[in-house]
Amino acid sequence: MKLELEIKPLNAAPDTCTQLTAMLVETVAGGGSVGFMHPLTPEAATTFWDGALAAVSRGERIILGGWNGPQLIGTVTLILNTPPNQPHRAEIAKMMTRPRWRGQGVASALLREAEALAVKNGRTMLVLDTASDEGAAGLYESLGYTFAGELPDYALKPHGGLTGTRLYWKRIGG
Predict the structure, then answer these.
(1) What are the backbone dihedrals phi and psi of residue 108, each rounded to the nearest 5 degrees, phi first?
(2) Which helix H or strand E contains 65, and what residues bound it?
(3) What is the fold of 5-126?
(4) CB–CB of 68/101 below 8 Å?
């Protein structure tokens, strides 16, 4: 299937929630370190996305989806809800691309769009973290993110065992 990527902000439409749930379950089953343990039930994944999409409606975050026709093939979250002393900052979270579409520029395109939306929302600094083991460090570094350091044994991998996390930052829009 040929990639014809369309990126757009997501809302709580039922089909969108269903596809987000399936992507999260698939990502965790494949070892993706996105805050959940395997096996992740569809119910738990739906509960997470219901909360995240409610935060979208409150203006606390933007969730972008990468679509290839009717199929959601990637997502990234831009968290805008920061403490009062950090109105210039946003956080990148829950970057996922379905395995079939990895290596085709989906994650890069999603991240660039998230950066543009952060600038539109008055942000000049982005931060993120990624697992030390099998994380997306290479992607972030290739897009200009600066490695700030590593925290050892930060979280459990989805299938067990500890992994560190690598912290990154990037100045944007200025």
Answers:
(1) -60, -45
(2) strand 61-68
(3) Aminopeptidase (3.40.630)
(4) yes
Q: Could you give the CA distance from residue 139 to residue 162 in angstroms, rounded to a whole number?
A: 22
Residue-range domain boundaries for the chain: 5-126
Convert the pLDDT of each residue in 24-57 to its tens digit. Answer: 999 999 999 999 999 999 999 999 999 999 999 9
Q: Which amino acid is at 121?
A: N
Q: Are strands 89-97 and 146-156 parallel, antiparallel or unpaired?
A: unpaired
In the three-class reduction of DSSP (H, G, I as helix; E, B as strand; rest coil), residue 20 is classed as: helix
Percentages helix, strand, coil for the chain, rounded to the nearest 5? 30, 35, 35
- Give the global pTM: 0.97
Phi first, then psi: what are they for 127, rounded to 5°?
-130, 155
Chain Cα centroid distance, residue 120: 19
